């Protein structure tokens, strides 16, 4: 048996059509896989989930706001406090029920050591919830 390699006299045109048979084969296989897996995914135990609306977090008036500037100075509601005074005040509010949260506003230039000292002091006073106040990035 022979094979036609082409002759010098043949002027056949190049076929400019894409063969879509492999594409159709792959799509049929994917369709079959999805048809098999959909009943497995939708067959679950019926439970009624609780509905909840997400509200933006608002600072409660009883929460303590501590600010730490870039030099490491600590301010309690805009009033400067040293580390001993801070510990004393935090111990006083730690016994309240419900216990207030401590929100820390740290300057972007503040060393981590200064923020770490405030966190340790807050934990030593027995405060359970510490949060950091940040600013969302500017859109532009």
UniProtKB/TrEMBL annotation:
Chief subcellular location: membrane
Domain of life: Bacteria
Subcellular location: Cell membrane
Keyword Membrane on entry: yes
A GO molecular-function annotation: transmembrane transporter activity
Membrane topology according to the record: Single-pass membrane protein; Single-pass type II membrane protein
GO biological process: protein transport
A single GO cellular-component term on record: plasma membrane
Keywords on record: Cell membrane, Membrane, Protein transport, Transmembrane, Transmembrane helix, Transport
Transmembrane spans: 20-41
Family: Belongs to the ExbD/TolR family.
Record's protein name: Biopolymer transporter ExbD
Organism, as annotated: Aquirhabdus parva
Lineage of producing organism: Bacteria, Pseudomonadati, Pseudomonadota, Gammaproteobacteria, Moraxellales
